[in-house]
Write a sequence for this structure.
């Protein structure tokens, strides 16, 4: 009887990572009235960099000049991705922002598609976008600026994947620590310029540290546990549920109600993402 429980542990860890990330993001949104989206991003990225650097201590290992530029590029995109996403959820619901952001990796996966069935997933993804973007009666209330920032986050997420693969030969933990430090060098000054000395108030610093732990430290740790015991394809399918979980977290914590059209849009994108992974060949899933 113990074996089934053991086999479910990685799946529980991944579900915990998704839920913690979404709840952490809703908590981060509650900081926006005090320090703004820019300041909250600075907290998340800055504290995450400190935590990761302290844990992995990458300075103990030599870094070649050839690896320096890819890590800087990777970190820069990481910072811009976080900043764009937090800027988007200032004015649009969390679930919709995550769904739009998911179009980055989804588009990247579909770019490498070779099977006719993938056109079904492309159609579903396009349907989801059409329903979300301010082109229909159900989504005209969405702020265009927020949608634009979410689209930018999607582009940066796709670039994050591409650039991350260029550092795949390096130690994963140390690479993420260095990349997050580069991201902090870019994002923290933006947060300071926006929020000023308010960002340094002890009460907000404590809340910002909590945001970093909930949104980065715990999810990253749980994902590492999950990746050891879940096949890559199953991992991706479960991760595809994140927009739906984000919508539920936004409803439960922030009271963000979605229209029926917006809920259908999220489900379409979740289905497109999961379907793309399930029908990908092993060579395509490696891209």
């Amino acid at each position: 009887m113990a074996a089934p429980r053991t086999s479910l542990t990685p799946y529980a860890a991944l579900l915990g990572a998704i839920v913690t990330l979404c709840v952490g993001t809703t908590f981060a949104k509650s900081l926006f009235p005090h320090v703004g989206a820019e300041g909250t991003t600075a907290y998340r990225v800055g504290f995450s960099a400190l935590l990761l650097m302290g844990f992995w201590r990458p300075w103990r290992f030599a870094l070649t000049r050839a690896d320096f530029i890819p890590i800087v590029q990777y970190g820069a995109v990481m910072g811009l991705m976080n900043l764009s996403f937090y800027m988007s959820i200032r004015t649009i619901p969390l679930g919709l922002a995550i769904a739009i952001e998911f179009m980055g990796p989804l588009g990247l996966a579909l770019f490498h598609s070779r099977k006719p069935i993938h056109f079904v997933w492309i159609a579903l993804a396009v349907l989801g976008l059409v329903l979300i973007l301010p082109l229909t009666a159900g989504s005209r209330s969405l702020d265009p600026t927020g949608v634009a920032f979410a689209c930018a986050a999607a582009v940066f997420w796709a670039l994050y994947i591409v650039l991350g693969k260029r550092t795949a030969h390096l130690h994963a933990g140390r690479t993420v620590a260095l990349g997050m430090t580069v991201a902090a060098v870019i994002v923290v000054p933006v947060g300071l310029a926006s929020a000023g000395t308010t960002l340094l108030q002890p009460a907000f610093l404590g809340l910002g540290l909590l945001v970093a732990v909930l949104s980065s430290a715990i999810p990253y740790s749980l994902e590492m546990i999950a990746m050891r015991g879940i096949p890559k394809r199953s991992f991706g399918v479960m991760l595809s549920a994140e927009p739906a979980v984000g919508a539920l977290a936004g409803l439960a914590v922030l009271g963000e109600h979605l229209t029926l059209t917006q809920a259908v849009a999220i489900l379409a994108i979740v289905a497109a993402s999961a379907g793309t992974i399930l029908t990908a060949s092993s060579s395509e899933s490696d891209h």
Remarks:
- The two ends are 38 Å apart (CA to CA).
- The chain has one domain: 10-285.
